[in-house]
Amino acid sequence: MRSDRCGLGWCLRNSEGQFVAGASKPCPGVLTALGAELVSIREALSWLKEYGITSPEIESDAVGAVTEIQEVSSCSLVGLLRDDIRDLTDSFSFISFCHVRRSANKPAHLLAREACSLSDMQLWVDFPPDFIVSAFANDLININ
């Protein structure tokens, strides 16, 4: 794992909680946990917009990120990321943001960790990568 970058990860599920897509993306530079979470949300929203997903429910285990998206604008890096996210939300017919326990967001966490060892973004569609299958199965058990 390199110390000059952080990893971003997101996971898309359908209404039954099954895997649809996921991504791991290395991010040059070192961001705060909040900054990394906001960049990851922005990246996920950009992908959702590009692929025509119209009504996403965004879950994050970073309560600060969910709160930050609802705050008043500022000129900080976090404020600029928040503004980017808000601009992207206009692309969706419905969108919601909610906080979930870290244990409920384990696949996304594992995808972010994997990103630190990658040189470029990796995208999985329809079938999850092997390293998140167990965490994903545990999530499905907890959902049902």
TrEMBL record:
Gene Ontology molecular function: any one: nucleic acid binding
Protein name stated in the entry: RNase H type-1 domain-containing protein
Domain RNase H type-1: 3-115
One Pfam family, short name: RVT_3
InterPro entries in alphabetical order: RNase_H-like_dom_plant, RNase_H-like_EbsB-rel, RNaseH-like_sf, RNaseH_domain, RNaseH_sf
